[in-house]
Write a structure and sequence with these properties.
This protein has 275 residues and is an all-beta fold. It is 0% helix and 60% strand. The protein is built from no helices and 28 strands. The strands form 2 sheets. The protein has a 26-stranded mixed beta sheet that branches. A two-stranded antiparallel sheet has the order 7-8. The chain is elongated. About 3% of the residues have low confidence.
Amino acid sequence: MTDHTFTTETPVDLYVEISKGNVAIRTADTTETTVIIDGQYADDVVVSHEGRAVRVIGPKSRTGFLGGTDHSLDVEITVPHQSRANVKTGSADITCHGELAACQFRTGSGDIQVDDLAGPGVIETGSGDVRIATASAELRIKSGSGDIQVDHAEAIAAISTGSGDVSIGTTGAPVAVKSGSGDVTVTEADADVALSTGSGDLVVSTARRGKFTIKGASGDVRLGIPAGTPVWTDINTLSGRIDSNLEGTGEPADGQDHVEVRAKTASGNIVLRQV
């Protein structure tokens, strides 16, 4: 095990690059950055500090990252609140607890978990799952087959996955989600939402206001709209069924919340429900 401590009176720019294991980042009200590394090759990890930059670089072989379970590294890092983090891993998981000003995380098959993203975030994973508790700034997520969960999207979010499911809790800004075959669910939307998938289901449990553009092939589409909300619809399905129990409310009054729905499927059903 190795332990490194640096005096960092302001937020830092953290860069981490390892293959296997775990990278755990914690932000705190501190004027120090600490890096603790555990694993057989902990002594071979290069840790440096210059200005705002803190770098943690794992050992590589001639053909890339060292392979084998013996080369797994557990990296625990504490940085000041509002630091920025750039992390690249092969299969190592990435977790972050606290407040990051920005992040850029890339992993081949590791899982990624972030508590509070106060600034822009870019996240890419091949097959790992992604969970973001709160995204207060622009968020971009791309995954090959992992599941994606965002509890609160308070700013613009663009999410895409090949075959994983996507779940979003609440939205406060426009959200766009594309999935090849996964299901997409939004629990409560207060802004524009655009969803598309090849064969998964597309669900917006409560659409409070905004434009909802939903495109599917064989999956079903389901939207819930609060009673009394004016709704404009443009709905089309080639061979599916359309089912709606919405009651007409006429034109929206000035400043009144209203919903526009454009939904299209090839063979999936489209269901609109008053909630």
